[in-house]
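Hi! If you just cloned this repository, the fastest way to understand the data is to look at a raw example. We've pasted two of them here, unedited. The first protein comes first, obviously.
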Amino acid sequence: MSIAEVYDITVTRRPLVPPMPPRAPDNMTAFGRMRAMRNSPIETWGARAYQEDIVQGRFFGRASFILNTPDAIRHVLVDNFENYTRTPAGIRVLRPILGEGLLIAEGRAWKHQRRTLAPAFTPRAVTSLVPYMVAAVDETIAKLKAATDGPVDLREVMQRMTLEIAGRTMFSFGMDRHGAALRDFVMEYADKFARPHMLDLLLPLSWPSPQDFRRARFRKRWTAFVGELMAERRAAGKNDNAPPRDLFDLMGAARDPETGQAFTDAQLGDEVATMILAGHETTATALFWALYLLALDPATQEQLAAEVRGVAAVGAPDIERLKFTRAVVEETMRLYPPAFLIARAAGGPDTIAGLPVKKGDLILIAPWLLHRHEKLWRDPNAFVPARFMTETPPDRFAYLPFGVGARVCIGAHFAQVEATLALAKIIGAFRVALADKEPVIPIGVVTTQPNRSPMFAIKPR
């Protein structure tokens, strides 16, 4: 029996092609490209970027390379990854809110953090956190059922739910008292600091820009807030004879396997900030896009609901049996990758796919482009979850929702489990439809965000 027959997939049905941002004209001027970049870098890419293996260009006097071939991407992110570091603009944008945490660190500092954190994110450790996820999702569903019949902003609901999951899995307490303040910090960061300014791109990292001074003031307030969360968690205490009950316990007990070194308090604060922000925001956005796609594609939504009914259980459904649900999550992250762009600067000369690269040259690996590239995917702009249910998975260097190589996202398994469980429970509980017909266009602002938050109509099943 075929996959289509097992999941009742109507293979002859024309697949959904969701709304997309317009492609840039190939003759776009440098000024036009800069103006488009301030809104969304996705709008700076023209047809060539979706068709060619490598697109060469210039960026403020430096050579730039957009890589769309798996072999070239493997070279940069795996074989010679130590030669390619974050760009100064990327560090400027991320450091105010992530500090020197795992996402920012380089060299020995990064290796120490990665080795130390790894035990906290093993599948076994993540399994111990599933009850926190399920409880927060069930409470969200109960609140939605108790609400009025009016339209619902499911993007905001997903942000609140994943923030609650982040708080409980990190600290074992809910975010009722702290959630509003945390969301305010996230919104302030997104509105004021998440887009690079001209001087961020031009100045070396050692030369502060006017925006850097404003970022420093933000960081002072932000680190004080994270310190308050950590102090509250420590005040709750820990039974030394009991196993770790949350990520804070796991991270506090973690030791570098080579040196035995623990995190300093400042380092632990940066890791806490990284895990809460990178975890809750990216998962909330992925769940929003999945719900949006399913609202546009009722047939696929019903296929998912049927699968959920088949694995119904008290508490957490068996995630190993949610194959179609997971495929919907994976296809959602293909069309709307959490990180739409990976930018690296060459630390020294190199050769990529036969092309000479000089120190300082800009290397761009854009999951947005890679996941929609015409040479790598059939119907690249269509929503086809079944493509992730074949016996031949996509090339691991053509599908990068969590990156790849040594710097692959340490929380990838956590995020996949959370998103799959949450989507299964929500679609198992509700039929989801859009309350308006205006298209939602993806934009790139650190993550792949919607240009607006549409209202949804939900109906209990």
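Ok, and the second one:
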Amino acid sequence: MKEISINPVTRIEGHANIKINIDDNNNVSSAHFQVVELRGFEKFLIGSAIEEAPRITPRICGICPTSHHVASAKAIDQIFGAELPGTAKKLRELLMAGQFIHSHSLHFFMLAAPDFLIGHDAPAGDRNLVGLVKSEPKLAKAAIEVRKFGQRLTEAVGGKPIHPTTCIPGGISAALSEQKRAELLEMAKKALAISQEGWNTAKTVLDSADKSFGAVETAFMGLSENSKFSIYDGPAVILGKDKSETGRFSGVEYLNFIEEYSEDWSYLKFARLKSGDYYRVGPLARLNIASEMGTPLANAALSEYKEAFGDFTQTTLAYNIARYIELLACCEKAVSLLSDSSICGKDIRCKTDDILNTRGVGIIEAPRGTLIHDYSVDDKGFITKCNLIVATCQNNYAMDRGVEDVAGKVIQNGVLSESAANKIEMVIRAYDPCISCATHAIGKMPISIDICRNGYKKM
């Protein structure tokens, strides 16, 4: 048996393995993306008061806590039969924009950019954030500035820069002051200017890349408001491989379309459509579904993107450029919301005294894709059942198949070079997986790529 280990796989959130099986002719026979962390939040939420869920679930992850906070609050709004005041909804949308700005700027500039701007064949010692700072200091500084705004926006609206607390049943717990609005607006305008300038670089990052890497054909799913990009409102729309719409849902009926399942090589659950088709979520899916972004600069960027990749694309590495367009859209959205003085209104919560429904489903778009929080409660409001479906689980199949696709192309004579290993990692990084969200990790486990002659079955 030949065994090669890379420890760690770099520039992803969380811990995972890649297992690659080599046959007797030194060719790749199969490969799998493997996660071996423990999933726990769905169980220990049971017995908690439903009002506690928006405070508990952000602890799932330090990268996308806002997404869990807002999805949880949306589910609870349904349980209390709450209709949000207009100002509360605007503040939640602003909070979500902050999450996207923080997360997308972090991933694009600091995790993905070294592969494209420094080079995927560059030595590992150079192909990282420090290398980016050395080679592109102006770009690195700009990235930090944009990410800082995302964090400050989350802190101002959510109460904390990490693990926000302000979303409550029926609205939000703290109004935005006029002074804070003015301060954030200036930061938003600066972040938008930086992001606009960065588009000229972002749209070229795949010019010299092998766009066939990670090839997989799937359906796609994401929220949409009348074919417009949306991260808070609208039904989830499913498009088949041929771009035809095959379904849409907005609540408990998600179970009519999606099913979860497991494979024996990973603790990370998989999700597929009940039709048997596999699907993807996240920036690539959202831009396949959207015909417009809803803001001028992002609309123009979307037109350039679709001219390059087509109106509907399966290109995995295009996730990186799609992600940047969403960053641009959310910076514009933040400027728009903060330019409206009504966002400082005091009507930020409706009355929520009684449990009106024993089940609530909150669906939003997290930076990595569609996020579903599904809670059932007893008549006193204590959680009796919980199901969380996160983006990384929904993209699990595509990552698993993408790993095998690239491994078969880059491994020569059973030998995994440093350059080949990074090309495999690039496919995983395109999805920006959040392993903590997907598995709710306890403890620390290494990340490695192993090659062995026998083991896992081919999917």
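That's it. A detail worth noticing about the second one: Residues 86-119 form the longest helix (34 residues).
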